[in-house]
Amino acid sequence: MSVSISQLEHPVVQAPMGGGPSTPELAGAVCEAGGLGFLAAGYKSVEAVRADLDALRALTARPFGINLFAPPAAAGAPAEIAAYAERLRGEAERRGVSLGEPRHDDDGWEAKLELCETERVPVVSFTFGCPDPATLDRLRAAGCATWVTVTTASEAAAADAAGADALVVQGAEAGGHRGSFDPARPGEIGLLPLLQQVRGTTNLPLVATGGIGDGRGVAAVLAAGAAAAQLGTAFMLAPEAGTSAAHRDALRGDRPTALTRAFTGRTARGIENRFMREHGTAAPVGYPEVHYLTAPLRAAARDAGDAEWFHLWAGEAYPLTLELPAGELVRRVASEARAALGRAAGSQVA
To answer: Is residue 350 part of a domain?
Structure first.
C-alpha cells in the first residue's frame, strides 16, 4: 500500500545509493526507526532486486521505497566514447584488466516496473527522467506512490504535469549522480534556491535532498517548504551500509568534492581523486556507455583499496557524516531538527 510523506514518524528519507551502499539492512533499519528506507534498483538484475525486496520485507513491515533509473535518452557519440576508451586503455592494462564494452541499455526498465507493480511497492521513485503519465497511472493503480527526482523548476513542472505524487528536489550539493532529465544539461542550482523555485511551480509534496548532513540541515529544508529531507551520504558510514572500506576511509577525510563525468558519462559529485583530475575534462556525455566502459577498472581499484581510481560519491556536507547505526542516526537528526525548528520559532525577525 502506498504511503504519504505525512504518515512518516520522522520526516527523514534514506536516499537510494546504487552500486553498493544501499542494502536491505540499511533500508530496514531506517524504516524501523520511523523514517523511509529505500532500495536502489539501479545496476542490478530484476532477480537481484527481487531478492533485496524479499530480504527487506523480512526485516520490516513498515513502508519503504524502491528507486528506478528512467531509461536514458539518446546514446552517446560513438567516436567520443571510443576516444575516451583509448585514453583509459593504458591504465587498464597496468591493472591487468580489460575495459568494459560500452553499451546503451535501459537497466531492465520494464521488468523492474512490473516487479514494483506486482509487489505493490509502497513508494517507487525515479531518477534520470520522468515516466510517461500512463506508467505513473499504472503504478498508482497498483497502490504505489510515485516520486520523481528533479533538478530544475522546468523538470518539476513536467513531472507535475505527468502525474507524479511527489518530487525529490535535488540540489547541486548532492553526492552521486545528478538526477537531471537531460544528461547534457544537468541542473546546477543549490538546494535552497531550487526549493523556492520549485515551490513556485507546483503544490506537490517536496522531498529535499543535497548537502543535508544533520538535523539542522533537515530543519532548514522543512522551513523552506519541504515535507521531508532525503539524506544519502549521511548514512554511508552506518554499519548497515555496503560502503567499501576505501570509500569509508575517504569519507573520514576532508578533501573537497567536485562534479565529474569521468566515471560514468553522467555528471555526479564525489570526493576529488586522481581519476577525476586526470580524466574529468576529457570524459564525454554518454551514459550508461561510459559506466560500462570504466566498470572493470573501477572494480579493480575498489578491490585493491585504491581510492584514487574509483568513484567516491559524496555530498558537500560529507565531513558531517557520523559513524552511527542507521536507526540511531534517524532518531538523532529528527531530534536535532525539532530542536532547531523550535529555536527558529522562538527567534524574532526584525
So the answer is: no
CA pair distance 206, 198, nearest whole angstrom:
9
Q: Hey, which residues does 229 pair with through a beta bridge?
A: 12, 208
Taking alpha carbons only, the member of 162, 203, 198, 141 closest to residue 1 is: 141
Q: What's the number of CA atoms in the CB half-sphere (13 Å) around residue 245? A: 5
**What number of CA atoms fall less than 13 Å from residue 125's CA on the CB side?**
31
Q: Which of 256, 283, 268, 28 is nearest to 127 (CA)?
A: 268
Is the residue at 349 inside a domain? Answer: no
Q: How far apart are CA 46 and CA 241, in angstroms?
A: 21
The answer to whether residue 248 sits within a structural domain is yes
Cell numbers 500500500 correspond to: 1
Under a CB-based contact definition with an 8 Å cutoff, are residues 116 and 140 in contact?
no
Instruction: Tell me the pairing of strands 228-231 and 206-209.
Output: parallel
Quick one: CA dihedral 81, 87, 89, 92, positive or negative?
negative
Q: Note whether residue 199 is domain-resident.
A: yes
Residue 149 DSSP SS3: strand
The predicted-structure confidence for 216-239, as pLDDT tens digits, reads as follows 999 999 999 999 999 999 999 999
How is residue 36 annotated by DSSP? Answer: B
> Cα 4 vs. chain centroid, distance in angstroms?
20
**245: which 3 cell numbers?**
572500506
Note whether 74 and 285 are within 8 A (CB).
no
Residue 156: in which H helix or E strand, if any?
A: helix 153-162
Residue-range definition of the domain harbouring residue 149: 5-344
The total number of structural domains in the chain stands at 1
In 10 A of CB 281, how many CB atoms?
Answer: 10
**pLDDT tens digits along 124-182:** 999 999 999 999 999 999 999 999 999 999 999 999 999 999 999 999 999 999 999 99
CATH of the domain at 302: 3.20.20.70
How far apart are the C-alpha atoms of 350 and 97, rounded to whole Å?
A: 63
